[in-house]
Amino acid sequence: MAVPxxxxxxxxxxxxxxxxxxxxxxxxxxxxxxxxxxAELPYILYRRASLTxxxxxxxxxxxxxxxxxxxxxxERYGExxxxxxxxxxxxxxxxxxxxxxxxxxxxLIDSEEAYQDDAFVQQLVFSAKI
Length: 130
Prior knowledge:
The chain is of the alpha+beta class. The chain has 3 helices and 7 strands; from the N terminus they run H-H-E-E-E-H-E-E-E-E. The strands form 2 sheets. The chain has a 5-stranded mixed beta sheet. The protein has a two-stranded antiparallel ribbon with strand order 4-5. It is elongated, with a radius of gyration of 15 Å.
C-alpha cells in the first residue's frame, strides 16, 4: 500500500513544473534537490524551507502552506537573471498537478542574489499551498 503524498513531497511537483516549462528547460534541465560537487553550471536547486499545517474545523487536514526556495546557479550574472525570470514565470501564480499531488497556489514572496563558489546565485522564495 502506497503512502499518500503530502506537502513533504512538494519538491517533486516543483521540479516537474520547472522541467516542463519551455523557458526554464531552454536554459537548463538540471534541477536538483541537492547539488553534488560534479554539478555543472547552469543548474537549479530547490528545497522546502518551511511548512505550516492548516487543519480545518473538525480536525480534517487542510492545505499545508510551505515555503520553497529555488536557487539558480550560473556562470554569468545576466544568464542568472534570465534563468530566475524564467523560474518566476513558471511558478508564480500557477496551479499544477503531478503524481497525485495538487499545487493549489504558488507565489513569489522574496528574492536575493549573491556570488559564491565561482557562480552567480539568484534565490527565489515561493509560498505555496499543497
